[in-house]
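G., before I forget:
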Amino acid sequence: MEIVSEKTFDYFIKGEKNKWEVIIGLEVHAQVLSKSKLFSSSSTKFGAEPNTQVSLVDSAFPGMLPVINQFCIEQSVKTGLGLKAKINLYSVFDRKNYFYADLPQGYQISQYKYPIVGEGEVTLDMPYGTKKIGIERLHLEQDAGKSIHDLDPENSLIDLNRSGVALMEIVSKPDLRSPNEVNVYVKKLRSIMRYLGTCDGNMQEGSLRADVNVSVRKVGEKQFGTRCEIKNVNSIKFMQMAIEHEAKRQVELLENNKRIDQETRLFDTKNNTTRSMRSKEDAHDYRYFPDPDLLPLRLEQSLINKLKKQLPELPDEKKERFIKEYNLSAYEANILVSEKEISDYYEEVVKKSDKKLALNWLTGDLFAVLNKKNLSISQSPISANNLSLLINMIVSGKISGRIAKEVFELMQENNENPEKIVETKGLLQQSDPKKLEKIIINVISNNKDKVEQYKSGKEKLFGFFVGQVMKLSEGKANPQLVNEILKNKLKSNV
Amino acid sequence: MSEIIKLTLNELVAGIKKKKFSSHEVTKDFVNRCIKSKKLNSFITDNFDNALKISKKFEIKSNQNKQLPGIPFAVKDLFCTKGIKTTAGSKILNNFIPTYESTVTQNIWNEGAILLGKLNCDEFAMGSSNETSFFGNVENPVGKKLVPGGSSGGSASALAANLTPATIGTDTGGSIRQPASFTGTVGLKPTYGRCSRWGIVAFASSLDQAGPMTKTVEDCALLLQAISGYDPNDSTSIDIRVDNFSSNLTEKVKGLTIGIPKEYRVENMPVEIDKLWKKGMDFLKDAGVIIKDISLPHTKYALPAYYIVAPAEASSNLARYDGVKYGHRSEGKNLIEMYENTRSEGFGDEVKRRILIGTYVLSSGYYDAYYLKAQKVRQLIKQDFDNSFNSVDAILTPSTPNSSFKMGEKKGDPVSMYLNDIFTVPVNLAGLPAISVPSGYDKKKLPLGLQLIGKPFDEQTILNLSLALQKRINFKRNVNNWWK
C-alpha cells in the first residue's frame, strides 16, 4: 500500500484493488481564554499546584449551583463570528451524564440540541486552491478534572484544577480530505481564535485538542463509509499520523471484504497505531437532558452587534489587504498573517522600510533564528524597529548585504541598534572610489600571474580578484564599485 | 414559664422584644422540651449546647430590628449548615459537615434566629411518610405509630410537638404541605424562584423549593418574609420585589374569586375530606369570596408526569454521591466496584428506586416517550392554571386525599404512597405558590388541611385567604404529649 500525493488534488490511499479517498471530520476542543471557569469564579490559570483552583461548585458539593460566566459566553459568540457562523439567540445547557472519578458532578454541563453557535465556515489555502471547510456547530461545555494514574503504584490521583474550565467544541463537517488539510485547518482555526483572543491555542498545555472522525470510500463513490472516532488527540502531528494509520487500517479491512465497526479508538503514540477503546454497543448512554439548574440562554441581538463591532481584522481579511497594500503574493501574505504577532511585526517594520526586504529578512533570517532558539515572534531578540533600521542601511548603501548578515548576528545580543553596531565596529561600506582603487591596484600587483591568466581568457578568475578585494577591505567594499573599477583596471593594465 | 413552647412565633418575637422573657429562657425551654421528646425522633443532629450558649450571649439591644430575634429554630436536614453535620436523611452523607451555609438558613440567622438542630426527613426528601430516612421513622405527635408525612416529616413533627417555634422544609411534590396537613400545622410552598436553592441538597432542581412551616398563618407570613429573596448564586431564583407579607396580611378578602377544580374530586376520597372542602368554601363565602367552578383538565396526568421528571432530575443530581470526594465510601477492588459498593450501601431502597426510574426515562430510546412527553404534560398543566387564573384569584383544594396513616401501612406499596401527593404535585409542576392550612379532623380524629393555590409570586393573596379561613375554622391542635 502506498500513499499517492497529487499536486492537483491531494491525497489518496492506493490499496491492492482500489484507490480510496479519506473523509475526515474534526471535533476541536478549544479552551476559552478567560480568567475564571464557565460556572464558577475559580481561576483557570495553567500550572498551579493540584487542587488549588477548585471551588465548591467545581468539586460538586451538595447544594452547589452553577452560575454562567458571561465573559465565556461573549468569547464563544466572538469565535462564532470569526467562523462566519450563525449565532443562536436561544441555546440550552444540557447535562451529559457519566461516572468518572475526575467528573465530580457525575455529569458534564454541555450543549446538546441547542448550541450557542450554528453553521459557519473556515477557508483554507491549499496548494491546489482555496477550500472551504464547513462548521457544523460550536457549543460550550465544561472540562473535567485530570486523572493521574502514573504517580502512585496503588492509587489514581485526581486534580480538579481543570474541572469546570470552559471549552468550545467546534465541530467541522466531514469536509477534510487529507492529513495536510487537517494540519492547515487546525492551524487556521487556532489562528482565528488567537486573533480574536478567545483561545490561546496552546496544545502543550491542552488548550486545543481534537477528536478525529475518519472514514474511507472508493474514489468516485458518493456514500460515506462507516467512521471511527479517534479520541482526544493533542497535537497536529499526532492527528496526521492517526488519520494516516486509521485510514490504512480501514482500507485493508474493506479490501479484505471485512466490515468496519463504528467505534471509538485511541491513538497509541508509542506504537503509532490506533486501537479500539469502545464499540458502538458499549457506547455510553449519556442521558442528555436540559440542566434544570440553568435557564435557557437567551442572547440579545444588540450584544451580538456590539461584539461584531469589536471584532479585530481576521486572517482572511488581513491577507487580502496585505496582497493589495504591500504587493505580496498570496503565499507570502499567508505566511505573514498566519499569526497575528507576525503580521503586527511585519507592519511595524514596513512602516519605515522596504516591503520586499522586510518580507525576506523576516521570513528568512529572523524565522531561522526564532526556529533555532525555539522562540515565538513576540519573544524575538530583534525588535521590529531595529530590523527596519538594518534594512534602511542596506537600501541606502551604507552597508552591503554581506555586512548586513554580520550585523544581524550581532543584533541578536541584547537587541542592539544596528546603526550603533556598524559605527562602533567600523562596518560602514567602503564606497570611496579612490580608496577602492588603491586596494585594487594592490591586488593586481600582488597577483601578476593570475592577471596574465585572466587576460589570456580565463575570465572566471574575476571572482578571485573580487574576493581578494573584499578580503582586504574586510568585507566593507561596495561590491558594485569594486566590479566597475576592477574591470577597468584589468582592461587598462595591458 | 412552661407555656413558652406553646406560643406562636409572633408571640415569641414580641415577647423577646418586649423583654417579657429572654432568648435564653426561650431557648432553654425548647431545648428541655426537645430532650424530653427524643421518642419522636424528630432530630437527626442537635445543636442544643451551642444554641444555649448563643442565646445566653444574645443582646436584644442590638437586635431590636430583626425579624426573628434570638428565636431558637430547627431546620430540615436538607439545608447545608456550616460546621454542622448535614445528612439529607441518608447514610451516604452520614459524615458530611458542610463548610458553607445555605442561603435560606443564612437569611434566617441574619434575622437573629439560633440553630436548634437538624430535623429528620425522608432520604434526599424522597418519601411521603418519613419512613425512608436512614435515621429512622419519625412519630407524628398527633398519635402513636402514625407517620408525620414527608418528606419534611421531622420538621412537621417537631413543630406540632412544640419542639421548635417554627421551621422550614422543602417541597418538591408536596413535602411541606402534606406533612403540615398530617400534623395540623401551616405549610407554604413559595413560587419557584422565590427562595434560593443554593446550599439545599438537591432532589429535583426544577421542582424543589424551600418554605415555612408554622403554627399559624401570621407566623407563616413572618417566616416567608425572612427566607425570600433573589440570590445571584441560584440562576433559577427570580429578582422580584419581596413585599412585607406580615404587614400586608389581612383577612379582608371580600370580592376575591376562588376556583374549585372539579378534577380534584377523586375517586375513593373519604367523605370527610369532601365535607371539609365544602366547609372551606362556606367559610370563604362567609368572608365575601366568590366561589367558581373551574376545570384543570390535565390534572390526572400530573402524578405520572411528576414521577418521570422528579426521578430523572434526581438520578442526575445524586450522581455526585460517588464516594470520591466526601460522604460515605465503601471499599472496592477498582473504581467501578467502589462506586457500586458505595452507592449500594449508601442509598436506601426508595432512593435507588427513583434513581433507576430516572435513569430509565432518560435513556436513549425512552427519552422522547417519557421525559419529553412529561415535560409537554407539564406545560399543559401550567397552561391549565394560567387559564384558570384569568378568572380566579386562587384555587381551593384539599391538601391530601387522606389523613395520616400507620407506619408501615404503605411501605411496601410505592404507588399508593405516591398517590398521597396527588393534590400537591400539580403545583410544583406549574411552579406556583400554595399553602396548606389546618382545617379540621376526620372521623379518626386526625388533622386534615385545605390547600390554597395562588398565582405566581402572589403568596400574599393565599396568605390572606388562609387567615380568613384560620379565623373561621378556629382549628385546635390536639397534641396530648403521649410520648412523654
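The longest strand of chain B covers residues 434-441. The mean pLDDT of chain B is 96.

More on Monday.
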